Amino acid sequence: MKFIKKYMVNLILGLGFFAVLTIVGCASTTNIVDRSGAQLWGENCARCHNIRPPQSLTDAQWEVAGMHMRTRANLSGIVTRKIIDFLKTAN
Ligand code: HEC
């Protein structure tokens, strides 16, 4: 009986922990989608070199440089797209 009680407590704690991890995990994904291109640019594009101002390249050049930096920085598709779109509206 004592064993079963301990088992149930562990099971409930385990499921609770799993639920918290799932909720926290999904919350941080939503967070990235909610961030603007300008914010993502500030967070990601000054990690390795000085930030390149939007005016430094044309729309077509930002497409190419953006894809180049996507592979360099291992960025996701949505993050890269938002940053490139922001740079193209601000140049
Ligand atoms: C992981 C480090 C890293 C991050 C993060 C990074 N870059 Fe770069 N970037 C480089 C390196 C290294 C170069 C020099 C060219 C090369 O060797 O690839 C470069 C060069 C550039 C150039 C010069 C043109 C070119 O394509 O070579 C531009 C513009 C640029 N980065 C923009 C950005 C933008 C915009 C972001 C954010 C999406 C970014 N970088 C994030 C490493 C990084």
Describe the structure.
The chain is mainly alpha-helical and 91 residues long. It has helices at 2-34, 37-44, 59-73, 77-90. The chain contains four helices and no strands. The termini are far apart. The chain is rod-shaped, with a radius of gyration of 21 Å. It folds into two domains: 1-34; 36-91, Cytochrome Bc1 Complex, Chain D, domain 2 (Orthogonal Bundle), CATH 1.10.760. Bound molecules: heme C. Residues 44-45, 47-49, 52, 57, 65, 68-69, 72-73, 83 line the site of heme C.
Rounded mean pLDDT is 87
The total strand number stands at 0
> What proportion of the residues is helical, as a percent range?
over 70%
| % residues in beta strands | under 5%
Q: How many strands, which pairing sense, and closed or not: the largest β-sheet?
A: none
Going by CATH, the architecture of the largest domain would be Orthogonal Bundle
Radius of gyration, in Å, reads: 21 Å
Number of helices: 4
**Poorly predicted ranges:** none
CATH superfamily of the largest domain: Cytochrome c-like domain
What is the terminal-to-terminal distance? 71 Å
